[in-house]
Design goal:
This protein is 60% helix and 17% strand. It is elongated.
């Protein structure tokens, strides 16, 4: 009777082994399907990101009390690299001392997030921030490949 039990145990080991191998094969197929599906999606996303901007330097004019200055945005294909203020008259900078520091703070946030959404700024300079964000947005619209 013990010999019969051994034969059943040997067959049971083979069945368990075959089940484990089959389960691993199924998991491998599922894993490969997920891996290939996500890499295809990433490459499609990368193609969309690559054409986000036409590389270059774009400017947008801002007028404060009849005095113009430019906000300059430098971009490559998929990143905002730099946002600066050019042609700012000394009298405007003296009359509105928060313009330059406000743009510098906004530029840090925009470059780190690569977006104009969810920017934080003080209520004390909200109008200046909105004016500068509008200028940056206008410059980025000029950098759009759809334009």
């Amino acid at each position: 009777m013990s010999a019969k039990t051994r034969i059943v145990v040997l067959h049971m080991k083979k069945l368990v082994f075959a089940g484990v191998i089959t389960g691993l094969g199924i998991l491998l197929v599922i894993f490969l399907g997920i891996l290939l599906g996500s890499s295809h999606k990433q490459s499609a996303d990368n193609e969309a990101v690559e054409t986000m901007y036409v590389p270059g330097v774009y400017t947008s004019s801002v007028m404060i009390d009849g005095n113009p200055f430019d906000v300059q945005v430098s971009v490559d294909e998929d990143h905002i690299n730099e946002i600066t203020m050019v042609h700012l008259d000394k009298t405007v900078e003296t009359m509105y001392p928060l313009v330059r520091p406000t743009l510098d703070e906004l530029a840090k946030q925009i470059i780190s997030s690569q977006s104009l959404t969810d920017l934080t700024y003080s209520k004390n300079n909200q109008y200046t921030c909105r004016l500068l964000i509008g200028a940056v947005s206008e410059a980025l619209e000029k950098a759009s490949p759809d334009r």
